[in-house]
Amino acid sequence: MLSRSSKNRRAVLFTLLLAAPAIFVVGEVAVGEALAAPKKEKPAFDTIPKSTPPDPTPLVSSRQWVFDLEYRAGDVQLLSVSEKTLKAPVESARAIGRFALELYEGPTLIERVRFDFPLLIEAEDAGPKRPPSVTRHLTSRIGVLFPATPRGTRLELWDRGTDRRWNLPWPPGSSVDGGRDALP
Hints:
Order of helices and strands: HEEEEEEEE
CATH topology of the largest domain: Immunoglobulin-like
Mean pLDDT: 73
Strand order of the largest sheet: 5-1-2-8
CATH class of the largest domain: Mainly Beta
Number of strands: 8
Shape: globular
Largest sheet: 4 strands, antiparallel
Number of domains: 2
């Protein structure tokens, strides 16, 4: 005759054997669902580029271009470009910013200098007590240092916040003479 503990062990074992196929089926269904074609979900931000190359190795130069840019009520304008020679060569700045000047040679990114316009911030959604946005009425100006290099075939200004890109003259020349060249 079986002892009480043996009966309990048998009951537990029998229950486990009966439950095992159900656990296996549940596990099999979960694996099958994981292998099914993934559902296409809309990304959190529509403006995220599909592929953004990493920052290249910073260029080092004592000759720099100064791009005088203006942000006015959501539009960006190139006011002027001037050349500046520094006493010693400097490495391009690496910073986080909404805007970037990117120099390409064919499809290859040669240089990227990120920056922000002073006072240009987007208020986070704080609900009904959200502070009023001043971005619509803001006028801000910045001079961005960019290495004067013989490399590159295309310079772009990229607004990472809206994913808008503008072509800028490269190499900078007489087409930018201090007048207001509105960016398309």
